[in-house]
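I have a small job for you when you get a moment. Would you make up a two-line entry for one protein for me to read? No commentary is needed, just the two lines. Write everything out right here, beneath this request.
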Amino acid sequence: MALSAEQSSRLVGLLTSHADQITKRWTETVAGSLRGRLSQAELLRQVQELHRGMVTVGEQGVLDLDAEHGAELRAVLGELSRNRARQGFSATETAVSVFALKEALLELLDAEQTSSALRDYVAFAALIDQMGLFTFESYVRTRESLIADQAEQLLELSTPVVKLWEGVVAVPLVGTLDSARAQVVMERLLQTLVDTGSPYAIIDITGVPAVDTQVAQHILKTVVAARLMGADCIISGIRPQIAQTIVALGIEFGDIATKASLADALRHVLRLTGVETGRRSRRES
C-alpha cells in the first residue's frame, strides 16, 4: 500500500524527529519476541537499517514499497529475511521484527492526540503490514532454497562412491532408489570412473529394502552407462528375498555378474584382474 504524499511526509517526520525513541522502543519489542537469541547490538543495527531505509524512501517521495524508489527498503527487508532464515529463526519471529514498529508509532501518536492520529495510524499500519508480508515471502523463498540445497547435499552424501582396490570402485546403496537418486548415482559413478580410470565398478544393493521393476531399470541404466565408459559392473547384495522378487517379476540382468555380498563381488573382480584372494590361496595351500 502506498501512503499519500501528506501521510508519507508525516511518517518521515515522526521517524526523523523521534529516531532514538522509535528505534529504542522498536528494538525492545523485537528483543522480547526473540528471547535473547540475537544480541542487542545486532538487533539494534538491523532496526536502524530498517528505520533508515524507510526514511530514505519517504524522502524521495511517496512512501511506497512497490515503487521503483522503494528498492532500497526492499533490499533491507530481503537481507533481514535471508539472514534470519539462515540463522534458524521462524517466519513469525522474522515478521515480528517489522510489525513491532506499530507499537512504537502508536505510543507517539497517542502522545500527540491530534485529530488525524487514528487515521494516520491506520495508514501507517497498512504500510507496515505490507512490509511484514514482503519479509515473510522473502523468508519463505530463502528457506525453500536452503531446504532444496540440503536435500541435494543429503542425496549426494547418501550415494558415496568409494575406491575398494586399485581399479575397483563401489557404490553402496542404502534406502529407496528413485529417479532423482538414480541420476545422482549414475553421475557420481561415471565421474569417479573418469577420475580414477577404474575398469571395474561394484553396485552394492545390500541396503536397498526392496527391488521392483523401476529400481531394476535404474540399476541397469547405471550399468549400461558405466559400460559406455569402458567399465564392467558387478551387482552385489542380492539377498534371498530380493532374488525371489527379481525372479517373480521376471527381471533380467542379462550378462551382468551378480554376487550375494560385496566381499564376493570384490573377490570376483580381483580374480578377473589376476590378484590372488585369501580364500583361493588357502584352497591352493
